[in-house]
């Protein structure tokens, strides 16, 4: 399994940092509100690796539910469609830098699906 050299999690609304970002991947299932596609400066939109709508609504970014959310989300990532998309993402990274982009609010980034993905891609906590 190929791991990324650096995995960053940032808000999609922040300005791109071409020298630091590496591969820019949106990991939300729905397009970020108010964001123009050309302003996002994405290399990929990997919506298949985003949590299901049901899981996202259940979690509702409640920090007390994060542990269970992460466990349920990892189970979703093991399902065929999400697992294949995650494997394709790993192949694209190939030891380089990736920035996982999400519309999650700043104070919720460390308890988001993007933080779980960072761990899955070898970027630690």
Radius of gyration: 13 Å
Q: Tell me how many strands there are.
A: 4
**Rough shape?**
globular
Strand order of the largest sheet: 1-4-2-3
Q: Terminal Cα separation, in Å?
A: 18 Å
**Regarding quaternary structure, how should these chains be classified?**
single chain
Uncertain segments: none
Give the secondary structure arrangement, pairings included:
Layout: E1 6-11, H1 18-21, E2 23-26, H2 37-40, E3 44-45, H3 53-59, H4 66-77, H5 80-93, E4 97-102, H6 113-120
Parallel strand pairs: 1-4, 2-3, 2-4
Q: How would you describe the overall organization of this protein?
A:
The model has no long low-confidence stretch (mean pLDDT 91). β2, α2 and β3 form a beta-alpha-beta unit. 39% of the residues lie in helices and 14% in strands. The protein is an alpha/beta fold and 125 residues long. It is globular and about 35 Å long. The protein has 6 helices and 4 strands; from the N terminus they run βαβαβαααβα. Strands 1-4-2-3 form a 4-stranded parallel beta sheet, covered by helices on one side.
Quick summary:
The chain has 125 residues and is α/β, with parallel strands linked by helices.
Record keyword descriptors for this entry.
6 helices, four-stranded parallel β-sheet, 4 strands, single chain, globular, alpha/beta, 39% helix, 125 residues
